[in-house]
Amino acid sequence: MALLPRLRRFAMSLARHPADGDDLCQATIERALTKRHQWQPGTRLDSWMMKMMRNIWIDETRACSRRGETFVAEEAGMSVGGDGAQEAAVALSDIDRALRTLPDEQREAVLLVMVEGYAYKEAAEIVDCPVGTLNSRLVRGRDALLARLGETP
Amino acid sequence: MSVSPEELAAFADGELAEPRRSQVAAEVAQDEALAEEVRRHTELKAMLGAHFAPVLDQAVPDHLVQTLGGGEAKVADLATARQGREAKRGIPRWGWIAGPALAASLALAVFLPRGGSGHYAGDEVAAALDGQLVATQGVVEPVKVLVSFRDRDGDYCRAFSGVAQSGIACRDETGWKLEYEGEGHSWNGTEYQMAGSGNADLLAKAQEMAAGPALDAAGEEEAKAKGWR
């Protein structure tokens, strides 16, 4: 499906780790397949799946904080991970680092509009908030990003 | 008149509606600070776009592609997926076809001439396409339906495989129009011998043609009730 690379991009930017991103992507595709009858033909499949992906991510993030950080140790051994000491070795780009510092709601607003190229209205539908809220989250996220990126020469 | 940061962002993203757009454009043209803001916004957008663009060019990992064909592999949550990443390769829904097809491609492949009258499915194939559902059809059918989906025009299409012929047909006002024809399969007494990698090709083709996921059992039933129209 032509959507796959885009879903992957959003998953990776959302999940912060490539491996988690692919898992998230996989979980989204699986959920989409089981729920495909709920998709309304004529509406945008990409928005529908991004929204689903975001929901899975939120559920998972909550579940993870309940479980503690148990999975981090497991992941740390993987070359694709980016935790703790490894983070320094992998040398995340300034952009990744700056994005991580944003609150989730600002980060997703920035990602949906500036990376995925959604119109404000579409992005607002994906994250289930009014367009005005999306707009202000975007601005706050953008300003924080610019400030962060400005700090590092 | 002052321009809020939100409005300015919307302006930079081409999201501002008239008449406000023209007003803001006029402000930006006069005010160097505002113009600088717009420039920074656009630059950041370009930077983020460039930063994540490589993901689009990376090859999508096999297990994700497989997932797309598989509804049976259920992942309860990401933690399970993580634990199982090494062991689990996903169970492709079409594995029962693709697997044997690959194996059979090593065996003697029997190519039969393409059948079908003109560009529409013949009676036998058409009857199967009209009546059979993937979920309920017999293990052995003269014509077996592999998968149903809707193409980009919204027409129902079904990939099928039979002794005389295999292919993909889409329903139009005349009948089942053959969009793609493959070879038939020989019958060895207990199971169909796939000719070459026929079904794998068919399914790949079906995925290309499909606008959205394959129909599930309920979707097929509904489509059948509507006469596949």
TrEMBL record, chain A:
All residue ranges annotated as the PhyR sigma2 domain in the record: 3-53
Domain RNA polymerase sigma factor 70 region 4 type span(s) in chain numbering: 94-145
Keywords, in A-Z order: Sigma factor, Transcription, Transcription regulation
GO molecular function: DNA binding; sigma factor activity
Claim: Transcription regulation is one of the keywords in the record: yes
SUPFAM superfamilies from the UniProt entry: Sigma2 domain of RNA polymerase sigma factors (SSF88946), Sigma3 and sigma4 domains of RNA polymerase sigma factors (SSF88659)
One BP annotation, GO: DNA-templated transcription initiation
Keyword Transferase on entry: no
Family (UniProt): Belongs to the sigma-70 factor family. ECF subfamily.
Database matches in NCBIfam families: sigma70-ECF (TIGR02937)
Name this protein carries in UniProt: Sigma-70 family RNA polymerase sigma factor
Protein species of origin: Croceibacterium salegens
Lineage start: Bacteria, Pseudomonadati, Pseudomonadota, Alphaproteobacteria, Sphingomonadales
Automatic annotation (TrEMBL), chain B:
Protein name: Anti-sigma factor
Biological source species: Croceibacterium salegens
Lineage: Bacteria, Pseudomonadati, Pseudomonadota, Alphaproteobacteria, Sphingomonadales
